[in-house]
Specification:
By secondary structure, the protein is mainly alpha-helical. Strands 4-3-5-2-6-1-7-8-9 form a nine-stranded mixed sheet, sandwiched between helices. The chain is elongated. Keywords: Apoptosis, Coiled coil, Disulfide bond, GTP-binding, Hydrolase, Lipid-binding, Membrane, Mitochondrion, Mitochondrion inner membrane, Nucleotide-binding, Transit peptide, Transmembrane, Transmembrane helix.
Length: 905
């Protein structure tokens, strides 16, 4: 009686459904006639039938039939309780009456109509997916078993259950058929939409927006502890448990390199799945798209993934934390973001870094610690549960199992190993493992050959679950089988988690942005918010402007600087290798001709070999000093944070810079001509040369006296009034100096050499005075400075007199007179002037422009290196702006994503 009571309302439902079907069929035969006023009004209210189409009647029939499919679940329920045979018959009649849907693409070519048909099919799929006949039988069976039934009744019940199982398999096939047709229809719709938006800006899909948001968060690091808590699917499992194969089945492509028992996943791989008309893959930092329908491009993709993994692992390590981002698009793919992590290992093998096991566990723990991450825990179904490492790790992180999905792989091997149905039920019901989970699934992701295609594996998986003894004995878990059901469940869980957490994450970044902006206002109120790239461009502009301003330096400033640097650089050579040797020769020979001869030879040789190159180096030094001086003068108006970058760029550019090769020959001719002319034509030139000679002598005299003072120690005045004292060596040198000065006073025209008798006499005199012997080397060293000072004093007195004798010089008919020293310094003065003028012209006409170009090249090189920018632009001001910009960008992306997510709802 209880069974009959349950049947009565169901029978009423059956009669109503039959009437509905009959009415649908009658209307389908009569719709080509003239419609009544009421029918016409109903059709006008439907947006589909407002489209003027020649085949309007046929479209109406299709929509009525499709809407009738929504009633199939009532037939299943009534058949499960009443008569399995009747339900099977009615189901078969309805399925046979369904028309072929391929003609829809020809009948409804318009995009709007295609969208309506697609939505109708999706609605049907959602209703049919919710029907689980096994669960209905499980709920009804206890009521039947509770009654005392005869053996005949028991046989009828068993037969009914068997028929329902067969009907469920047929239902599964029809569902897959409709799903394939829907997939083709979606592809057609996507292709039509792509053709329309091809000429305008392509709008990013929701999952692409979310993936970019995760990339930004992955690079974000802040001292305000704003963490990335947005959901993603973390694929984790023991090594060789099949976790990569599960991800490939979800992506419907063999996109990862494979190895026989070898650890292939060495870095996290973020895979963004999205729907598209073509099955393609693309890396985040690359514009190339890999066609996943071609085996050759699949092989290239796997090779590229392997290369990126190896490059990400630093020397001495086996795994890396650097994320490899990839997008996979294709028709029918579930939209989600998955992260494939290296497999958990029990021990470290040869060739691995000693800390590999701990690094993998720390990496996995870090990703799973995100409270909103969905953990896809992969367990090898062909091994004992006690051998699992990953389940313990997952249980420690997600103790309540609120975001864990357990996936049992290799169940086909489990069946070969004689695993019983009770074990499968325990695993999928969550009673075998101590860990808790949100859902439990069993999948088959391979046939044992790594070259098998995804389609062949899917076919093998479906065939296995249709024919498997484990599947037949576990009819209540059909929705927990196959990777298709797994991917749909994971996608639903993923988007549910995203909707629940994205606004909370947006609020966190709003608070972080407020904190950063407050810090900026308090610490840098007068500065603009410029990041590294903007500061880099600011420094570029300032330096290039300074280079341009070099052309505005006056001729006088250039030439004064060049003349001073030239004389400073060559004065030592002029005195030590030209003037003094020639002057000493005059004292020995008492002939001015020898002076001019030696000077001419040395100057010509010097001008041909050393002077032009030395002059170019001097010009380059002056250009560099002038440039740096201008930068320092404008430093007060510039930003101090740019100083390090500016100096590094300038030094690099100056190091790269080389003077024009043509300048050598030009300078050589100019300098030789200047040094050969000894004729002083006017008094101005004479006074200039004489003054230059006098000032040079004074400088050298002062330098010599300083050296001599250091050698002989403080004077008696300094000893008495400044309490200074002499060392023993200084005292000895002072005594030698006194003897040598007496020698020069007795013979002012003494040559620069001491005779052997003079040396012995001085040594004996010192021994008698001090009682200590004196070394000849000490005498020679002291004599060098004493005679040098004596010579400079004599030459200086002579120069003062010669300065007043220009008119005597003009009246003199011989050029071999006593004016040879003034002539020498006139030649040097003229050479310095002409060289400075030539260098100034080269700098302003060519070298400034070349320096400008070289500085631009250095900036371009530095601009391509983020490490160089980080090294040269440092400080809290820079890092604060970067953090603030990242937070602003992430907040904007979050707001855009939330807006798009709300629109999709």
């Amino acid at each position: 009686m209880e069974i009959l009571a349950c049947r009565r309302p169901v029978l009423v439902c059956i009669l109503k459904n039959r009437k509905l079907i009959k009415k649908c069929n009658t209307h389908s035969h009569n719709q080509q006639r003239n419609m009544s006023h009421i029918t016409q009004r109903r059709m006008n209210s439907n947006p589909l039938f407002r489209i003027h189409n020649p085949q309007l009647s046929r479209n109406f029939t299709v929509m009525r039939v499709l809407s009738s499919l929504l009633k199939i679940r009532y037939l299943f329920i009534s058949g499960a309780i009443g008569s399995g045979v009747a339900v099977s018959k009615k189901y078969q009649e309805i399925m046979d009456s369904l028309p072929d849907l391929h003609w829809i693409k020809d009948v409804l070519p318009d995009d709007k109509q295609l969208k309506i048909i697609q939505d109708s099919l999706n609605s049907i799929f959602d209703d049919m997916k919710n029907v689980n006949l096994g669960e209905i039988i499980i709920k009804v069976s206890p009521k039947i078993e509770a009654k005392e039934v005869s053996s005949d009744s028991r046989e009828k019940i068993d037969k009914l259950q068997q028929e329902i199982i067969e009907m469920q398999l047929r239902y599964q096939k029809e569902l897959e058929k409709l799903e394939r047709e829907n997939k083709e229809l979606r592809k057609t719709l996507l292709l039509k939409n792509n053709q329309k938006v091809n000429l305008r800006k392509v709008k990013k899909s929701l999952i692409d927006m979310y993936s970019e948001l995760l990339d930004e968060l992955n690079d974000y690091d802040s001292s305000y502890q704003t963490q990335d808590h947005l959901p993603r699917v973390i694929v984790i499992g023991d090594q060789s448990s099949g976790k990569t194969s599960v991800l490939e089945m979800i992506a419907q492509a063999r996109i990862f390199p494979r190895g026989a028992g070898e650890m292939m996943t060495r870095a996290p791989v973020k895979v963004t799945l999205s729907e598209g008309p073509y099955h393609v893959a693309q890396f985040k930092d690359s514009g190339r798209e890999f066609d996943l329908t071609k085996e050759s491009e699949l092989a290239e993709l796997r090779k590229e993934v392997e290369i990126r993994m190896k490059n990400s692992v630093s020397r001495g390590n086996s795994v890396s934390n650097e994320v490899i981002s990839m997008t996979v698009r294709g028709p029918g793919l579930q939209r989600m973001v998955l992260v494939d992590l290296p497999g958990i290992i029990s021990s470290v093998t040869q060739g691995m870094a000693p800390d590999t096991r701990e690094c993998i566990r720390q990496m996995s723990t870090s990703y799973m610690s995100n409270p909103n991450a969905i953990i896809l825990c992969i367990q090898d179904g062909s091994v004992d549960a006690e051998r699992s490492n990953v389940t313990d790790l997952v249980s420690q992180i997600d103790q309540q199992g609120r975001r864990t999905i357990l996936v049992l792989t290799k169940v086909d091997m489990a069946e070969k190993n004689m695993a019983n149905a009770d074990r499968i039920n325990k695993i999928l019901n969550g009673s075998l493992f101590p860990m808790k989970a949100l859902g439990y699934f069993a999948v088959v992701t391979g046939k044992g050959n790594q070259d098998d295609s995804i389609d062949s594996i899917k076919e093998y998986e479906e065939k296995f679950f249709r024919n498997s003894k484990l599947f037949r004995e576990s009819i209540g878990i059909s929705s927990q089988l196959t990777t298709r059901n797994l991917s749909m469940a994971v996608a639903d869980c993923f988007w549910k988690m995203v909707r629940e957490t994205v606004e909370q994450q947006a609020d966190s970044f709003k608070a972080t942005r407020y904190n950063l902006e407050t810090e900026w206002k308090n610490n840098f109120p007068r500065d603009l918010e410029l990041d590294r790239d903007e500061l880099f461009e600011k420094a570029r502009g300032e330096i290039l402007n300074e280079v341009v301003s070099l052309s505005q330096v006056s001729v006088k400033d250039w030439e004064e600087k060049l003349r001073g640097e030239l004389w400073k650089s060559i004065s030592h050579y002029i005195f030590e290798h030209v003037y003094l040797p020639a002057g000493y020769s005059v004292n020995q020979t008492n002939s001015s001709a020898s002076f001019n001869t030696m000077v001419d030879i040395k100057l010509k040789q010097w001008a041909e070999e050393q002077l032009p190159k030395k002059s170019i180096n001097i010009g380059w030094t002056v250009l560099k000093d002038m440039f740096k001086r201008m930068l320092e003068e404008n430093q007060n108006s510039s930003d101090n944070i740019l100083d390090t970058l500016k100096m590094a760029v300038i030094d690099e550019a100056l190091e790269r810079h080389s003077w024009d090769d043509k300048a050598l020959s030009t300078l050589r001719v100019i300098q030789l001509n200047a040094l050969e002319d000894r004729c002083i034509k006017n008094k101005h030139n004479w006074d200039e040369a004489a003054q230059f000679f006098i000032s040079s002598l004074e400088q050298n005299l002062k330098l010599t006296e300083d050296l001599l003072k250091t050698m002989v120690g403080p004077s008696n005045y300094e000893k008495w009034f400044y309490w200074k004292s002499s060392t023993a060596d200084q005292t000895k040198r002072n005594n030698i100096k006194s003897e040598l000065e007496n020698l020069l006073n007795s013979n002012p025209d003494h040559s620069n050499l001491l005779t052997k008798d003079e040396q012995i006499t001085i040594s004996n005199n010192l021994k008698q005075r001090t009682g200590q012997p004196c070394e000849l080397d000490d005498i020679w060293e002291t004599w060098y400075l004493v005679y040098r000072r004596h010579y400079f004093k004599t030459a200086l007195d002579n120069a003062q007199n010669l300065k007043k004798q220009f008119y005597l010089y003009q009246e003199s008919s011989s050029s071999q007179g006593e004016y040879y020293e003034i002539e020498l310094f006139w030649r040097i003065t003229r050479m310095i002037k002409d060289t400075a003028n030539a260098l100034r012209q080269q700098i302003t006409n060519r070298e400034v422009r070349r320096l400008h170009q070289e500085i631009k090249e250095v900036f371009d090189d530095y601009n391509q290196s983020q490490d160089m920018k980080s090294k040269l632009l440092t400080g809290r001001r820079v890092t604060l702006v970067e953090e603030l910009n990242k937070v602003k960008l992430i907040q904007e992306k979050l707001e855009d994503f939330i807006q798009a997510l709300n629109k999709e709802k």
